[in-house]
């Protein structure tokens, strides 16, 4: 199919009569009379563009992928030909005629109502089946199958194993997969593709229809959908109907006043004020942010201003989400703050403007989000990106330009996941009772993500499952059989989403559900007395019930506090976007170094980019004071700058390549110097904290001397001791049946994870954990190509023994806007009370016999050993028994040597500073070195002391994932 031009949108999926002007009604003419009459009754006068292009090939029975934005009638595009065929067939049907598979946990109510209307009008039974469907309804569906069943990928897995449902599924002629772009990049989608191949075993081939947001490689997504059986692609050009502007608000006098009222920085106050003003200009505005934390932080500020803006994200209680969806749709809310969950087509009525706060990081994100806005008169999707600092601004400008030009990222299909193979081997055994191993292999490899799965990999997975008593393997007969553990394993692993605990948050006063918190936040940060933000409101934790996984809270008024930390990594900025930012720096930087005024350079940029001159000038701030003698890092120049222990590799390669290079640099520099190297990355920098005996030349040597062919092996070695790999191994082990009933809480035991790593290192479990991290977080091939370019001279590397504004301007430099310089007094009091109540181990390093665990408030000003009188007392966290064991060990390994050194540094601080040192050491993530910095800083009062502790704790919370 040729790409379709964008001339039409109903303004709502399958909406009323506001179709494309002059649209060709011949597409509807291919449908039967019953459907055409219903169309007329429904108010469809002309087809929308995707309907005009896609309905004819769908009526002809072709596999079709429809790529179009939300609000263009995609659901009806797919379902009208399917419903038409079901009404026109003369053959009796005893089973399910069509499956509609959606990744949404709860089918959006608008879609359900529309499909049920069509079913009623055409005398077809349309039903929904998902995790919340009652047993009675499930039984009814098995005994009397509907004509159309709407379901999820996970429920399809369960249906394939039921005897009555297998009979019902054998009649399936059509499968529609909604949001197929979302499934293509996940293990959920990989699992679904094998499920569809298992369905082929029952129903023979069937028509496959995919509905997708804009992607860079629709043909590849089509192959994912069909198992490479052939697929017509109908793609609507979104860029030409996009009106996006990028703005970085200037600080006004009103913002200075608001900053005090909102307890925040003037810059953040200017963003809140600008968004509030934008919302007031339009009838209905979606405000997208990249994280749930930021949604909560912005929501709390809008609440302070009495702005008519709701908050919506996945960690809110279902009732709360439905309430704000309905309020927004009814026009009772002017704006709705939301995250990526709102990209998946949840119906909230007509949207006439979308605001994206901070760069959307990816072109696909911008298109999906701004594409939700559709103006009924001129069919244009209008959006504003509000940026916060130079990197953010240049990045947003690059993304907006790419969106208009159709330069969209490809879908990164989740190929070859071995835990999905394990899951589906068990599924096939459940389907057939016993099955030849090679038949199972053939079915698996028909699915596109497993087309390259080798027989050796398959056999290793089978043996692992057999060893874990999930299936029975008759080696001589090449046969897989069901055993007692198969059923339990399969139904405990219907979903490929990792099983991590979430804690319910309950309001102690009303008993109502507030939302959920990720277990890692609860374990690492949450204690009674802590304050955090959720649903735009402040809550103080009163109790944590770990057995019931409930956090009880009470509402508070003050606006200081921690923002909840949920599962979910930062949206990675792609290589192409980062490269364009580097190119922009190079063009502007050279002009500015030659004396051109920033105003004229900025005006020149507005000819190509969607920002005004003032906004572009914000993007160029790091270059305006740039030393004319210093090299500028660009798309083809890497700058390594170095001062003291701070080494920054300025590299415009995006998140994944920089993460890979950063791991390589930190591992090899650490090995060369014999010391650990701290690392933090963003799309434009690799920031390293190196030992004093390291230099910029050492980093250059790594880039120039490392064999690109060895990158994968070196990165895997660097992962060996990383918590991220240990956590991933535990998750994957569960999916292989090697670890029963694992939840995230068990992962907090470092020694337990170490033992698990040792036990599974030479198994497909370990291989899959490494593969998944390499796929999701790193880019080995991209990093190897960077090394090749450096070594060939295609990529220039410059050294500088100084810091530059670009090197100092990392993304983290713009992340402190949510907290005031001086935390609210009640927060400081909470920190003080919490630390005073914390228990610490006191351990005498002189006699090594005396050890006591005490609350900080009960520790003397000058601790000493009651047995030997020594003041050489180490203050250790209560879980640090291994440190005591390390000190006492007669022969020490490297880790024990580090622990012992840590204990002696702690004792030295306590001996010199007494209880003040104990308090600093009791803070989260504050070791002896940082404790010494806190203690030695001159300050006016004790509150300042606790403010410094709070800053260190927040810094640790932000950067802890970068430290192994």
From TrEMBL:
The keyword Glycoprotein is assigned to this record: no
Top-level lineage group: Archaea
Gly residues bias (residue ranges): 11-22
Sample GO molecular function, one term: DNA binding
Disordered as annotated region, ranges: 1-28
InterPro entries: ATP-dep_Helicase, DEAD/DEAH_box_helicase_dom, Helicase_ATP-bd, Helicase_C-like, Lhr-like, Lhr-like_DEAD/DEAH_assoc, Lhr_WH_dom, P-loop_NTPase
Low complexity bias locations: 1-10
GO biological process: DNA repair
Record keywords: ATP-binding, DNA damage, DNA repair, DNA-binding, Helicase, Hydrolase, Isomerase, Nucleotide-binding
Family annotation (Pfam families): DEAD, DEAD_assoc, Helicase_C, WHD_Lhr
Keyword Transmembrane helix: no
Domain Helicase C-terminal: 274-429
Chain ranges of the Helicase ATP-binding domain: 55-233
Family from the record: Belongs to the Lhr helicase family. Lhr-Core subfamily.
Protein name per the record: DEAD/DEAH box helicase
Organism expressing this protein natively: Halosimplex carlsbadense 2-9-1
Higher taxonomy: Archaea, Methanobacteriati, Methanobacteriota, Stenosarchaea group, Halobacteria
């Amino acid at each position: 199919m040729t790409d379709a031009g964008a001339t039409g949108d109903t303004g709502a999926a399958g909406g009323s009569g506001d179709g494309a002007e002059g649209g060709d009604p011949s597409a509807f003419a291919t449908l039967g009379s019953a459907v055409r009459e219903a169309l007329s009754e429904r108010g469809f006068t002309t087809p929308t563009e995707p309907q005009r292009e896609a309905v004819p090939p769908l009526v002809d029975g072709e596999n079709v992928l429809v790529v179009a934005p939300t609000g263009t009638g995609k659901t009806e595009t797919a379902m009208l030909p399917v419903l038409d065929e079901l009404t026109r067939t003369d053959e009796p049907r005893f089973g399910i005629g069509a499956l509609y598979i959606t990744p949404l946990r709860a089918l959006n109510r608008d879609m359900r109502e529309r499909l049920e209307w069509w079913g009623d009008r055409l005398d077809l039974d349309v039903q929904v089946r998902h995790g919340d469907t009652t047993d009675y309804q499930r039984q009814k569906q098995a005994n009397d199958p509907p004509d159309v069943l709407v379901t999820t990928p996970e429920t399809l897995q369960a249906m394939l194993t039921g005897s009555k449902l297998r009979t019902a599924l054998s009649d399936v002629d059509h499968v529609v997969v909604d949001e197929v772009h979302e499934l293509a990049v996940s293990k959920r989608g990989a699992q679904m593709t094998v499920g569809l191949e298992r369905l082929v075993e029952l129903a023979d081939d069937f028509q496959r229809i995919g509905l997708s947001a804009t992607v860079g490689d629709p043909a590849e997504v089509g192959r994912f959908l069909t198992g490479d059986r052939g697929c017509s692609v109908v793609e609507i050009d979104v860029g030409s109907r996009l009106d996006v502007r990028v703005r970085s608000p200037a600080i006004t006098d009103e913002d200075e006043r608001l900053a005090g009222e909102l307890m925040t920085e003037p810059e953040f106050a200017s963003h809140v004020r600008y968004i509030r003003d934008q919302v007031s200009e339009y009838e209905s505005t979606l405000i997208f942010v990249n994280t749930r934390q930021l949604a909560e932080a912005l929501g709390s500020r809008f609440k302070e201003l009495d702005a008519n803006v709701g908050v919506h994200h996945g960690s809110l209680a279902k009732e709360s989400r439905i309430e704000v969806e309905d309020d927004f749709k009814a026009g009772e809310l002017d704006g709705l703050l939301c995250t990526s969950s709102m990209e998946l087509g949840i119906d909230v009525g007509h949207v006439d403007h979308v605001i994206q706060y901070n760069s959307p990081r990816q072109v696909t994100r911008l298109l999906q989000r701004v594409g939700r806005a559709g103006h009924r008169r001129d069919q244009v999707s209008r959006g504003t990106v509000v940026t916060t600092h130079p990197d953010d601004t240049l990045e947003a400008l690059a993304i907006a330009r790419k969106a208009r030009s159709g330069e969209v990222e490809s879908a990164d299909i989740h190929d070859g996941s071995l835990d999905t193979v394990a899951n589906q081997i068990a599924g096939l055994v459940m389907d057939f009772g016993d099955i030849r191993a090679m038949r199972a292999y053939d079915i698996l490899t028909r699915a596109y993500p497993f087309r390259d799965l080798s027989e050796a990999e398959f056999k290793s997975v089978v043996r692992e499952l057999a060893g874990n008593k999930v299936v029975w393997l008759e080696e001589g007969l090449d046969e897989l059989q069901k055993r007692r553990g198969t059923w339990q394993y399969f139904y405990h692993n219907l979903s490929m989403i990792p099983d991590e605990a979430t804690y319910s948050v309950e309001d102690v006063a009303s008993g109502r559900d507030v939302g959920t918190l990720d277990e890692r936040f609860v374990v690492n940060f949450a204690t009674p007395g802590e304050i955090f933000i959720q649903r735009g409101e402040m809550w103080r934790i009163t109790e944590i019930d770990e057995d019931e996984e409930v956090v009880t809270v009470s509402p508070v008024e003050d606006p200081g506090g921690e923002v909840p930390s949920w599962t979910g990594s930062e949206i990675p900025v792609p290589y192409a976007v980062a490269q364009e930012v580097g190119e922009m720096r190079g063009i502007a930087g050279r002009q500015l170094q030659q004396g051109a005024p920033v105003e004229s350079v900025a005006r020149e940029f507005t000819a190509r980019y969607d920002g005004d001159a003032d906004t572009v000038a914000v993007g160029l701030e790091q270059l305006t004071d740039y030393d004319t003698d210093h090299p500028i890092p660009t798309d083809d120049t890497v700058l390594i700058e170095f001062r003291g222990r701070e080494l920054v590799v300025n590299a415009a390669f995006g998140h994944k390549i920089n993460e890979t290079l950063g791991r390589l640099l930190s591992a090899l520099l650490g090995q060369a110097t014999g010391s650990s190297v701290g690392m933090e990355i963003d799309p434009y920098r690799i920031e390293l904290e190196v030992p004093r005996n390291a230099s910029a030349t050492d980093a250059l040597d790594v880039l120039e001397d490392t064999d690109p062919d060895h990158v994968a092996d070196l990165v895997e070695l660097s992962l060996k001791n990383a918590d991220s790999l240990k956590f991933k191994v535990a998750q994957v082990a569960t999916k292989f049946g090697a670890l029963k009933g694992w939840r995230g809480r068990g992962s907090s035991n470092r020694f337990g994870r170490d033992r698990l790593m040792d036990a599974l290192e030479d198994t497909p479990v370990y291989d899959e954990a490494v593969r998944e991290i390499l796929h999701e977080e790193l880019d080995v091939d991209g990093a190897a190509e960077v090394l090749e370019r450096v070594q060939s001279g295609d990529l220039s590397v410059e050294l500088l023994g100084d810091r530059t504004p670009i090197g100092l301007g990392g993304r983290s430099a713009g992340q402190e806007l949510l907290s005031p310089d001086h935390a609210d007094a009640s927060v400081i009091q909470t920190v003080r009370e919490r630390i005073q109540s914390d228990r610490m181990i006191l351990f005498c390093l002189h006699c090594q016999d005396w050890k006591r665990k005490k609350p900080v408030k009960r520790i003397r000003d000058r601790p000493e050993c009651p047995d030997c009188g020594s003041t050489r007392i180490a203050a250790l966290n209560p879980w640090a028994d291994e440190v005591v064991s390390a000190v006492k060990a007669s022969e020490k390994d490297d880790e024990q040597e580090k622990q012992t050194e840590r204990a002696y540094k702690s004792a030295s601080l306590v001996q010199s500073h007494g209880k003040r040192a104990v308090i600093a050491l009791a803070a989260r993530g504050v070791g002896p070195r940082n404790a010494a910095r806190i203690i030695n800083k001159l300050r006016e009062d004790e509150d300042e002391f606790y403010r410094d502790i709070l800053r260190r704790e927040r810094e640790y919370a932000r950067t802890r994932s970068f430290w192994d």
